[in-house]
Design goal:
The complex is a heterodimer of chains A (311) and B (362).
Chain A (H helix, E strand, L loop, with lengths): L3 H4 L8 H4 L1 H25 L33 H7 E2 L8 E2 L2 H32 L5 H10 L5 H15 L5 H26 L2 H9 L4 H9 L4 H17 L2 H6 L7 H10 L7 H21 L1 H8 L7
Antiparallel strand pairs in A: 1-2
Helix pairs in contact in A: 3-14, 4-14, 5-8, 5-11, 6-8, 8-11, 9-10, 11-15, 13-14
Chain B lengths: L3 E10 L2 E11 L4 E5 L6 H9 L6 E6 L2 E2 L5 H4 L1 E4 L11 H11 L4 H14 L15 H13 L5 E5 L7 H16 L4 E6 L2 H7 L2 E6 L2 E6 L1 H6 L4 H6 L6 E11 L2 E6 L2 E6 L11 E6 L4 E4 L7 E10 L3 E7 L5 E7 L9 E6 L4 E4 L9
Parallel strand pairs in B: 3-8, 3-9, 6-7, 7-8
Antiparallel strand pairs in B: 1-2, 1-4, 4-5, 9-10, 11-12, 11-14, 12-13, 14-20, 15-19, 16-17, 16-19, 17-18
Helix pairs in contact in B: 3-4, 3-5
The chains are: A mainly alpha (311), B alpha+beta (362).
Chain lengths: 311, 362
C-alpha cells in the first residue's frame, strides 16, 4: 500500500541514505543518551529483583560473546510481568490477582473513548469555526482556549465537588466526560488550523459538482486533513494516557487507571519500592502509545509540520 | 434549453459595491467572455451565476428558471476554477468521476463516461495518478474534463488559462474552443487576457469597476468601442487617445486642433451633434499611414523609439506638444529615429469620444 507521502507525491526520505552515515551515527548516539533511562527501565523489568539495585548495575541481558564482563550481565526473566497481574500481597498467603488487567482495560477504554469523542466533536466544531464563522468567532475560540489556561490543581476542587454532587465521581462516564472536555480545546484549535489551510475553491468545486454540504465535509475536507486527525489523536492519547491527577481523585476502585494503580502498587505493603515490579508495569504501559505512534508515523510527520510545508 | 440570463445583478460587500447592475444574456451554444482588469467584478459576477455568492439585487436565470435562492448543487452547472480546485486526496480518474458520483450513476456508466472524456482530453494515461503528480497543463485538462463529464445546463470558466505558460495557453485555447463548440451549451469565460477573449468568445462583455461597459462580438468591441475605456482596453498596441479641440464640422469633415496642429479629418456624421468642445480622438496604431509630405489631414510627429515586432514595426512618435503616438508600419517601410512622420489617420477607423467618454457614432 502506498504510504501517505507517496500518495501525495512527496519525496520519500530514505533515512540513512539521505542523511549520510556520519550524521546518522551522531543522531543515533544522541538518541541513545536520551533514551538510556527508558532503556534502563525496560531492562530492569526483565531483571530478577535481587539484581535490580545491584552495584555496579547490570547493563546487558547478554554477555555479547564474552565482550561484557559477567558482573554487568543479568539473566533475563519474565517473572516480573506475571507479578504485575498475580502476586503475593500478604506474606505467607498464596498469590492473588492484583486487578491490573482491569486497570489496563480502564486506561485503554477511558483514554481511547475520550480522545475519539473529543476528535469527533472537536473536528465538527472546528470545521464550523473555520467555514461558518459566527459573530464573535474569535471570542468563542478564545473562551474555549481558556478552559486549558488554569492549572489542573486549581480547578480540581470545584470539579471534585461537582462530580460528588452529581454522583459522577468513580464512574466511567464522569472521567470520560472530563477528559473529552479537556481534549476538546486542543482538538478544536489544532483541527481549525488544518481546515483553515484547505483551499476553499476545492469545496466550491464540490458544491458545483453536486455535493451536499455534509459530503463536502466528509468526502472532500476530511480526507485532506487525515494527517491532522492522526496527529491530534496521538497527542490527545498521550496526554490522556499519562494523566494522573484527575484520575487519582476522580476514579474509583473499578475505574482506576494504570498511572494511579501503579502509584498504589508501588507504595503499598510498606516493603519499600519494588523496582522490578514498577519497571514491568511501566514497560507494559509504554507499548500501546508506542504502537499507535509507530503505525501513524507517516501521518504524524505531516501533521506536526503543518503550516511549514506548502502544498 | 441551456441559457444564462443575468438581470441587473448587484453585489455589495458591506459598503463596497463589487458589481453594479450587470445584465447579460447567453444563448445556447454561445461563448461569452467577461473581460476586464483585475478587481473589476468579473469573477464575482461568475460566482453569482454559479451560486457561490448570493446576488444582493437582481436575478440570475439559468435554463429559463430563476435561480437566485438555489444553492450551487441545485443549479446544474459545471465550472472550471482558476486554480483548478482538484480534489487532492483523490486520483485523476476519481476527480473526473466525482460529479457523476454525486449524480449516483452506475459504476459502468461512470467508467464509460470518464474514459470517453479522458480520451477527448488526452488524459487516459494519467487516470491513476494523484493531482500532485501531473503537470500544470494536465491539471488544467483534468479540471475541464471534470466539467464536461456531466451534461450540465451551462459552463463557467474562471480564468481557465492564466496559470499556463504561453505555448500551452495557445494550444489549450484551441482545445477548449473545440470542446465547447461540440457541446452547444451556454458558456461564460472570465479572463483578463483580451487575446483569450477575442479568440474564444462569440461575444465579449467588458467590465470595469463592477459595471459592464460594453457587450458585443469581438469584431464590434474592437471596431466600435462604446467608450474611452473599451477603446483603450481592447487591442495591442493600445489605441492612441488624444485630446483635441473640435472647432467645426461640415460635410463629413471635422476641423480639430490636435497636438497644436490644425487638422481636418473625416469623421462620423454623428460628430455634427457635438458643439465645439474638447473631445477625445482615438486612432489605432495600425490605422495610420506615414506619409512623406505634410497635408491638411496629417499630424506631424518625430520618430523617437523603434520596436521591430517581426512582420511589423512599432514606432513611438512624439508630437510638437510632447504627446506620444504609437504607429505600426509594415516591416518594409524603413524609418529611422529622428525622422518626421506625417501621420494620416484612416477615416473609417477614427473614433470621436465626447466629454462624457462615450463614442460619438451614428
Amino acid at each position: 500500500m502506498a504510504t501517505l507521502a507517496e500518495k501525495f507525491g512527496l519525496r520519500k526520505a530514505s533515512g540513512v541514505g539521505e542523511a549520510g552515515w556520519g550524521h546518522t551515527l551522531i543522531v543515533a548516539l544522541v538518541s541513545l543518551i536520551y533514551f538510556l533511562p527508558v532503556l534502563m527501565i525496560i531492562f530492569t523489568a526483565f531483571k530478577p529483583s535481587a539484581q535490580a539495585l545491584s552495584v555496579p548495575p547490570t547493563l546487558s541481558p547478554t554477555s555479547l560473546f564474552g565482550l561484557i564482563p559477567d558482573q554487568f550481565v543479568f539473566t533475563p526473566t519474565l517473572e516480573n510481568f506475571g507479578q504485575v497481574f498475580n502476586r503475593v500481597m500478604v506474606s505467607g498467603n498464596a498469590a492473588e490477582p492484583t486487578g491490573f488487567d482491569v486497570f489496563f482495560f480502564n486506561s485503554f477504554f477511558i483514554s481511547s473513548v475520550s480522545v475519539l469523542l473529543a476528535l469527533v466533536i472537536g473536528t465538527l466544531a472546528s470545521y464550523g469555526f473555520s467555514r461558518y464563522p459566527l459573530k464573535g468567532n474569535d471570542t468563542y475560540l478564545f473562551i474555549i482556549l481558556t478552559t486549558r489556561m488554569l492549572p489542573a490543581i486549581v480547578v480540581i476542587i470545584p470539579i471534585i465537588l461537582m462530580f460528588r454532587t452529581v454522583g459522577l465521581s468513580g464512574s466511567y462516564v464522569g472521567i470520560i466526560m472530563l477528559y473529552t472536555a479537556f481534549n476538546l480545546a486542543f482538538t478544536i484549535w489544532m483541527m481549525k488550523s488544518f481546515f483553515d489551510e484547505l483551499s476553499y475553491d476545492v469545496e466550491d468545486a464540490a458544491r458545483i459538482d453536486g455535493s451536499s454540504e455534509i459530503k463536502v465535509f466528509l468526502k472532500i475536507c476530511l480526507p485532506q486533513v487525515v494527517a491532522g486527525l492522526a496527529a491530534t489523536f496521538v497527542f490527545g492519547l498521550i496526554l490522556t494516557w499519562n494523566e494522573f491527577l484527575f484520575a487519582l481523585l476522580l476514579t474509583g476502585v473499578d475505574t482506576r487507571t494504570v498511572p494511579v494503580a501503579m502509584n498504589q502498587a508501588v507504595s503499598s505493603g510498606g516493603r519499600g519500592t519494588d523496582w522490578t515490579l514498577l519497571a514491568s508495569i511501566e514497560t507494559l504501559f509504554l507499548i500501546p502509545v508506542f504502537l499507535v505512534t509507530f503505525f501513524l508515523q507517516d501521518h504524524l510527520l505531516r501533521g506536526v509540520t503543518f503550516g511549514t510545508v506548502k502544498r | 434549453m441551456s441559457t444564462i440570463e443575468v438581470k441587473k445583478i448587484t453585489k455589495k460587500y458591506g459598503e463596497f459595491l463589487a458589481v453594479k447592475d450587470a445584465s447579460l444574456s447567453v444563448k445556447a451554444g454561445e461563448v461569452v467572455c467577461l473581460l476586464g482588469p483585475s478587481g473589476c467584478g468579473k469573477t464575482t459576477t461568475l460566482r453569482m451565476i454559479a451560486g457561490l455568492e448570493r446576488a444582493t439585487e437582481g436575478d440570475v436565470i439559468i435554463a429559463g428558471k430563476r435561480m437566485n435562492e438555489l444553492p450551487p448543487q441545485k443549479r446544474d452547472i459545471a465550472m472550471v476554477f482558476q486554480f483548478y480546485a482538484l480534489y487532492p486526496a483523490l486520483n485523476v480518474g476519481q476527480n473526473i468521476a466525482m460529479p457523476l458520483h454525486f449524480e449516483k450513476l452506475s459504476k459502468e456508466e461512470t467508467d464509460r463516461r470518464v474514459n470517453k472524456v479522458a480520451k477527448i482530453l488526452h488524459l487516459t494515461e494519467v487516470l491513476d495518478r494523484m493531482p500532485g503528480q501531473v503537470s500544470e497543463g494536465e491539471k488544467q485538462r483534468i479540471a475541464v474534463a471534470r466539467a464536461i463529464v456531466r451534461d450540465p445546463n451551462c459552463f463557467l470558466f474562471d480564468e481557465p488559462l492564466s496559470r499556463l505558460d504561453v505555448e500551452l495557453r495557445h494550444s489549450m485555447r484551441g482545445q477548449i474552443k473545440e470542446v465547447l463548440s461540440n457541446l452547444s451549451k451556454a458558456t461564460v469565460i472570465v479572463t483578463h487576457d483580451q487575446l483569450e477573449a477575442l479568440t474564444m468568445a462569440d461575444r465579449i462583455a467588458i467590465m470595469r469597476d463592477g459595471m459592464i461597459e460594453q457587450v458585443g462580438t469581438p469584431h464590434e468591441v474592437f471596431a466600435k468601442p462604446a467608450n474611452v475605456f473599451v477603446a483603450s482596453f481592447i487591442g495591442t498596441p493600445q489605441m492612441n487617445l488624444m485630446e483635441a479641440d473640435l472647432k467645426s464640422f461640415g460635410k463629413g469633415v471635422a476641423s480639430v486642433t490636435l497636438a497644436g496642429n490644425a487638422v481636418e479629418m473625416a469623421a462620423d456624421p454623428a460628430v455634427s451633434t457635438l458643439r465645439p468642445s474638447k473631445v477625445m480622438i482615438g486612432i489605432r496604431p495600425r490605422a495610420f499611414t506615414a506619409e512623406s509630405s505634410a497635408g491638411k489631414s496629417t499630424i506631424p510627429a518625430q520618430a523617437e523609439l523603434i520596436e521591430p515586432m517581426g512582420a511589423e514595426t512599432l514606432i513611438h512618435a512624439r508630437t510638437k506638444l510632447g504627446g506620444d503616438i504609437r504607429v505600426v508600419v509594415p516591416r518594409t517601410q524603413r524609418i529611422k529615429i529622428g525622422d518626421v512622420l506625417h501621420l494620416k489617420p484612416d477615416p473609417k477607423q477614427t473614433h470621436f469620444f465626447g466629454e462624457n467618454g462615450r463614442a460619438v457614432r451614428a
